[in-house]
Amino acid sequence: MTGQFAIALDAMGGDRAPEMVVKGANIARQRFPQVHFLFFGDEQRVKPLLDKYRALAKVSTIHHTDQMVKGEDKPSTALRTGRSSSMRLAIDAVQSGDAAGVVSAGNTGALMAMAKVVLKTLPGITRPAIASFFPTLKGESVMLDLGANVQCDADNLVQFAVMGNVFARTVLGVVSPTMGLLNVGSEDMKGHEALREASALLRDFKLPGSFHGFVEGDDIAKGTVDVVVTDGFTGNIALKSIEGTAKLYAEFMRATFKSSFLSKLGYLLARPALNALRLRTDPRRYNGAIFMGLNGIAVKSHGGTDALGFSNAIGVAADMIMHRALARITEDFGNTNTAAVSRPQAAEL
């Protein structure tokens, strides 16, 4: 997509909303001057913040609502009582065509439920998946599903691979992505039937890039493939394990440098390198999980992020919009010889 387009923002979603949302939009505005921002939230709280950024205010519109989805609300409750909430109205803006995408740092379950009900799924997609990207030894990779579907059949996994392939091309800029199915081993006979069936299907799919085959847990950080495909149960555990390990090593390093005078002196000498490492692994750089497979761009920001992190979530949405991600997914399915088979719906988290 070229020219101007609008992105709807749930101004009340997130631990530090609406301040974080407005500041994040101002950062994103500098990178994406063609974006018009639609803020959905309490005008009495949003407008004073927006007035601090004149350039942002000129490309923004506030849609007032004093209702919001709370973090503890169940998806069913949010669907039933949140029709006038900031989250729902922002999603509605995408469905009506007033916005090309929506970004929220609010309740994940509610956002997924609302987005699926309002936006529906793309042709050929039976289950949407949560996708996000992270640093690896070779650069960056995308992994999906990260929690939307506990159980998946072979067709679901194939659909995830197609959508992950598009994500790698549009957001990560990989021209010919490599794809792999997360498994307990790399041998063809390893894994359950759905994995083996999905592997056979993907070998015959005509997609940009190539299908690597099965990958193991340590291949995620190695960057063995650009797209890691798995069910939501396994993907969510893998994601949380990666996050936990990163925090563990950061704490170990912090404690080590505080352990003695020489260690503190060593920290001063190593600080430039450590700052570069901190920047490389800063989770705010990789903020923004997208609900792939919906008939509309919907991005979930981490609820505890700051303005910089939220601006990067906006960036994910903008990249998907500008590079016609939804159209590419539809085109890729149209160019394949294998049609998705309708099967019983997988369980959700």
Features:
globular; Isopropylmalate Dehydrogenase; 11-stranded mixed beta sheet; Phosphate acyltransferase; alpha/beta
Describe this structure in words.
Strand 1, helix 1 and strand 2 form a beta-alpha-beta unit. The chain has 13 helices and eleven strands. The chain starts with a strand and ends in a 15-residue tail after the last helix. It has 349 residues and is an alpha/beta fold. The chain has a domain at 130-283 and 337-349: Isopropylmalate Dehydrogenase (3-Layer(aba) Sandwich), CATH 3.40.718. It has helices spanning 19-31, 43-50, 54-58, 75-81, 86-96, 108-119, 154-170, 193-204, 217-222, 232-257, 261-280, 307-322, 325-334, and strands spanning 5-10, 35-41, 60-64, 101-104, 129-136, 139-144, 178-182, 210-215, 227-229, 289-292, 297-300. Homodimer. Probably interacts with PlsY. It comes from Hypericibacter adhaerens. It catalyses: a fatty acyl-[ACP] + phosphate = an acyl phosphate + holo-[ACP].
Write the layout of secondary structure elements.
Layout: E1 5-10, H1 19-31, E2 35-41, H2 43-50, H3 54-58, E3 60-64, H4 75-81, H5 86-96, E4 101-104, H6 108-119, E5 129-136, E6 139-144, H7 154-170, E7 178-182, H8 193-204, E8 210-215, H9 217-222, E9 227-229, H10 232-257, H11 261-280, E10 289-292, E11 297-300, H12 307-322, H13 325-334
Parallel strand pairs: 1-2, 1-4, 2-3, 4-11, 6-9, 7-8, 7-9
Antiparallel strand pairs: 5-6, 5-10, 10-11
Helix pairs in contact: 1-12, 4-6, 5-6, 7-8, 7-13
